[in-house]
Design a protein that fits this description.
70 residues; mainly alpha; 434 Repressor (Amino-terminal Domain); two-stranded antiparallel ribbon; 5 helices; globular
């Protein structure tokens, strides 16, 4: 998939656990885990907004588009 979710990288930089993010955002642990492991097929803007507010970051810090050159 050409879009990568860098949630694990941002959490490590902020020295924050997934459970702490869950408490701050109100997003379930299972949904955050799906995002963190790059298994998500979609993300709601409201979810992205909550994560960005909690981590004090921009959507581009979390989502990355990777171009595959074949």
């Amino acid at each position: 998939m050409p879009i990568i979710v860098n949630l694990d990288v941002i959490l490590a930089k902020r020295k924050m656990s997934l459970s702490q993010l869950c408490e701050l955002t109100g997003i379930t642990m299972s949904n955050l885990s799906i995002l963190k492991t790059n298994k998500a097929k979609a993300i709601r803007f409201s979810t992205l907004e909550s994560i960005c507010k909690a981590l004090d970051c921009q959507p581009s810090d979390i989502l990355e588009f990777v171009v595959n050159i074949d």
